[in-house]
Design brief:
2 helices; mainly alpha; 0% strand
Length: 57
């Protein structure tokens, strides 16, 4: 079993932070009926998915 190096943990933490933050912003935007918050949250989730796809082979 191999342990993850520090850069792997940092990327994983960034992806999880962006994804969960984006979902929170999406929920807030849906509750407040604010389209700009929905868009911001969607873009945060998209960036998190792109980082995950590009960084992981």
């Amino acid at each position: 079993m191999t342990t993850r190096s520090r850069p792997d943990r940092a990327i994983r933490r960034a992806v999880l932070g962006l994804g969960s933050g984006g979902l929170a912003v999406i929920a807030t935007g849906a509750y407040l009926d604010a389209l700009w918050l929905l868009g911001l949250g969607v873009w945060a989730v998209i960036v998190a998915m792109l980082i995950e796809l590009v960084y992981r082979p």
